[in-house]
């Protein structure tokens, strides 16, 4: 079972052009800021919205081909969906919710309920059959929604922000559990999220969507190590610069020059973590060849450290200890020198 | 109809379907013996529904004669009009379709002086044009298959109908009891009722849409008119009553099929 | 969240017209109570005419509400959930009876369903069916006047209901009919109930269209409001007052009872 989709859709401000391929049994995390077109992508794949152009093929079956006049209705697609607020039918019991898909496909009530009971057991929800959705915790509701979607054996499972409705305390446990359930599911899965950690943990592959376009995709570690856009860099907590390399140096659009540890040529991305940045009141001496005079724009608590936003020819984020902030007398508007060792910098083609 | 009319909501149902005829008012002679003072102002007249066409014509003549006079009518079932007067409706003149309803008003002390009988009316068996169901007489009203409209027994035309049917020994099988004779007339004119017992005058007012089947011993109703005790415009009211009971009224009412008192 | 204590300083510019408004609404009903012939009340209520009219009113209003539910809920669904061309025109048309004088509705019904009407003539010639002066005509008149209340209430409920539930049901394989029956309808049930109650109350009070189209005959077409009208025109104001009180009592009981028990509980 595999998904191959080439989506073109324009509505209002959104101009979506996305090509997606999901291997059998794989989980692809669709990561992007609000308004990037993530949920629209899911609605296109579910058949709720019609494609303007392109093609959707699932498991060898063409679901959408506007040019060829093909549009399979949502109820015939075998595409399951779990959304952020789960949308459990509020007037039905938990058992009826899970059995709904089988009943809709014409299965007798008793058989549908027996199978639903089995799925609830698999989800660790024995004894919850008669509850109403309003009586469940967020994590329980998510498992019911998952069981409701999986019971009809969809070939493609779409999860739209499946953890966003949970409070921070329960999220890690539910996330781990969701990962376990997805591992046991044979079909393709697409998880939409704006949380990089969720994308990294749940996804075998991460696809980053910005402004209706795929801006980066790859294995989670690859995306985390080598961000290609400011949005991804911010998500994964790296400084990202773009410049043109010639040998051991790269020139930024501002004219500033960055020293590199290895040879590189042509347009490059330059990434380094904020903890690798050292701040000092005067031009530092020693091995660090990259040093730039900057103006502090902002100070913000960041875990145990303080994140310093500094502007200048080379804008950087730096993580320093509260002690260093006090010692250096850092405050917005103040002058400071930022330095990074060339060995801390990773360079890759843009 | 350009004249302002006080159309009470309760009578709207009955009046709506009524064809408004007899508003030409040109042929009759000016009223003789006009009063010494010229009547003016607004005169509100509550009148039985069966008087609609005749009184509209009469008002046209009177208003032509006295430019400062304005006559406002409220037509409806006589018993309902008496209820309104007893409840304090501000009106000048009351004209009912029988003496028993007027007696109620007199007993209630709302009438100034003695009511005067100004016309008589007889009932007619009315059928739609062409008499599609071949109605021949009162006995047909007992036919369950025939759709019969009769006035509600408590209103004058209904009381008259009941007396007529009793005298003829017929137990009618009505399909609807209207509170207003005009409503029954309209139903026949529209062809929704196969037969109705209505006043000769109302049948005549419907023109060609209605045919009249002769009925022997048709009961006679007497129409009294009176000035009301609390009339806001007693002078105008007296002028209107004089016109109704005098020559102008006689002429117009006779044209409409009323009998002289 | 703690409730704010009510501020009792109401500006006179609001208080005086508000008091007047309440008086206009409440005084007539209080007047009926004051003028009621309490001594004769039991005998009037137990009279054949009143009981016949009451039974006819309850039966016709209930049947009318049933017809309005069967036909009106689908109309509301069409208006709220489909991209039907000319939908706003359709909405305007089906809600016209809300503002139309009922008498006009009665005349219109007579012109269409009367024995010589557009549809009525065909019905009569083909099946020998004639609607005016029948209990069916009463129901038709009541549906004409009262169904828009139901349509408006249900359409509002459908608009505020979350359509994504329908999408989820579709992905689970449900047909639109299954989705409507098992998902949409339960979700808007309070709105449907509210609409049905309004519709029933309006049907119970229907007068103008009924008297014009269905006529007035005891046991067949003479409902409570018609009986009250006949009574006042026959000079029998005591009966009219008792009938009016009866209708007020029935309406108030139903409205208050339903609001507290069902509509209020589910909000």
Describe this structure in words.
The complex is a heterotrimer of chains A (350), B (261) and C (267). With 350 residues, chain A is an alpha+beta fold. Chain A has two domains: 179 residues, Rossmann fold (3-Layer(aba) Sandwich); 113 residues, Beta Barrel (OB fold (Dihydrolipoamide Acetyltransferase, E2P)), CATH 2.40.50. Chain A contains nine helices and 19 strands. In chain A, the strands form four sheets. Chain A has a six-stranded mixed sheet, with helices on both faces. The longest helix of chain A has 14 residues. The two termini of chain A are 33 Å apart. Chain B is α/β, with parallel strands linked by helices. Chain B folds into two domains: 144 residues, Periplasmic binding protein-like II (D-Maltodextrin-Binding Protein, domain 2, 3-Layer(aba) Sandwich), CATH 3.40.190.10; 100 residues, Periplasmic binding protein-like II (D-Maltodextrin-Binding Protein, domain 2, 3-Layer(aba) Sandwich). Chain B has nine helices and nine strands. In chain B, strands 1, 2, 3, 4, 5, 6, 7, 8 and 9 form a nine-stranded mixed sheet that branches. In chain B, α2 links the parallel β1 and β2. In chain B, α2 packs antiparallel against α9 and α3 runs parallel beside α4. The longest helix of chain B is centred in the N-terminal third of the chain and has 14 residues. Chain B is elongated and about 55 Å long. Chain C has 267 residues and is an all-alpha fold. Chain C has one domain: MetI-like (MetI-like fold), CATH 1.10.3720.10. The longest helix of chain C is centred in the first third of the chain and has 34 residues. The radius of gyration of chain C is 22 Å and the shape is globular. The chains are: A alpha+beta (350), B alpha/beta (261), C mainly alpha (267). At the B-C interface, α1, α3 and β6 of B face α5, α11 and α12 of C. Chain A: GO terms for molecular function: ABC-type ferric iron transporter activity; ATP binding; ATP hydrolysis activity. Chain A: One of its GO terms (biological process) is molybdate ion transport. Chain A: This is ABC transporter ATP-binding protein.
